[in-house]
Amino acid sequence: MEQLITVHYGELTLKGMNRGEFERIILDNIKKALENEKYARIEKNQLRLLIHLDNDSNKDEIIRKLKNVFGIQWFSYAISCKPDLSEIKKIVLDNTQIGKTIKVNTTRADKSFSINSMEVNKQVGQVLYDKGFKVDIKSPEIVINIEILKNMANIFFDKIAGLGGLPVGSSGRVLCLLSGGIDSPVAAWLMMKRGCVVDYLHVHPFANNDEVKKSKIVELIEKLNQFSQRKSRLFIFPYHELYKKTFETGNKNELIIFRRFILKLANELVQKEKHLGIATGDNLAQVASQTLENMLATSGASTLPLYRPVLTYDKNEIIEVAKKIGTYELSIKQYRDCCSLVATKHPATKVKIEDVNFIEDKIEINKIVEKTIEKKEIVII
Ligand code: ATP
Ligand code: MG
What we know:
The chain is α/β, with parallel strands linked by helices. Helix content is 39%, strand content 20%.
């Protein structure tokens, strides 16, 4: 008898992707997630991963950490034994809570096992019935799962939902424009969900970059890193050079100029750092800068693809995710972000690209971008 955690990563998601590669990445991410945990070993076994626990293992902590790994469909704490019916019956009897209605649910991943699933259900069910358990096939209080693999049988009760998605690292690397609000951390998380490694770019209004390093921006990234099982890079740029110029021109197009400025910085960076795209927390029509017209005017500043994973969410849907992943509390913390400095209270909702081009030429935006890049700083978090 042995204790383990069985991890299922869902066959369907393997379509179109090299299975071996997928398994290698998810195994690697699980090992990183459990870096500080004690366990005997992890093995791959017939489309699942088995984490063999030992006496020093902190089961609850391992479960908590697995809940942060993308690519896992579900997992469960299991007791395993030889694929032998009498051993299985004994474990089931010893571990099933009396007084509740039960159902036995067997899957046979190893078809060479001589008894089929129905028959195992029947025989184990019979033993329980004889001991006074009530069977309820339709809506049981307890489902006893028996999984028969080569050389072993696993018995488990609760299936714990995983995060789903794809393991981080199975898609490419993207750069997320992180503002410190509610939306952009959720956008970063959703890109991770589809297997992206995410780095961050933040533009700040402080006199020097050090302020950012002490701010909630770092805390947000630390929180997000829990879901990627790896460190990420934060690229910090000051707003100062642009602010100096637009401060003079102050007008209703300023917000779009600011957005385009961030994208120009991102594009310069991404060419060098080889990110495959840029992710933002834009949400259609949430604020003046995010009308379709304004997004059209903004997008023109980027030659790289822009990904906007929360574009169609309602605000409360974004907040729901933010609360679930633990970024919400940080996002609502007081922070002096650049938008509070953008002069006009009534930004245009339908910016004309000719106007934008005119202002950008006038303030010599390319020089501003150049000067800002000189002040770039990279922090590994
Ligand atoms: P969030 O979108 O994070 O909730 P927000 O709503 O204040 O913050 P918006 O003003 O809606 O941000 O900006 C839209 C998007 O532009 C943000 O989601 C983010 O991707 C990007 N962005 C805005 N400000 C910054 C900034 N200072 N640094 C980097 N990216 C930014
Ligand atoms: Mg927003």
